[in-house]
């Protein structure tokens, strides 16, 4: 299931980016529910345009990190359980692959969603970014070690 989820989610974001990028500037922005704005923005850096002058770092660091996550997921997939970990890794990988695809094909990531609320209206993102955020937020819920199991390890190291 998770191996199928990744290309579906990444593909969905890629299709949405293509659709938004194909729109004429006169058609944009489009506003939904008075708070969600769809427009096209080009980000050639990391989050908030960070390191945009460091093209190789911006292009290859996500590939490296995503490769590690794919490796972790490939270890987890054959095992029973770990559903939350598998889901969180799948979401992060899907979002990352979508943005990596943009970086390699366009040289920048197409961001197209803005929430029009005070304080957040400067933040522009895409569906892939939402997948990465959701995966990161649910990841801690997949951690199996309990505090009681961790504390004896810490105490024995100090002795």
From TrEMBL:
Q: According to its record, what are the GO cellular component terms?
A: membrane
Q: Name one GO molecular function term.
A: aspartic-type endopeptidase activity
Coiled-coil stretches: none
Show the stretches that span the lipid bilayer. Answer: 57-77, 123-143
**Is RNA-binding among this UniProt entry's keywords?**
no
Family the UniProt entry places it in? Belongs to the peptidase A8 family.
Q: What does this protein do?
A: This protein specifically catalyzes the removal of signal peptides from prolipoproteins.
Q: Please identify the protein, giving its name as recorded.
A: Lipoprotein signal peptidase
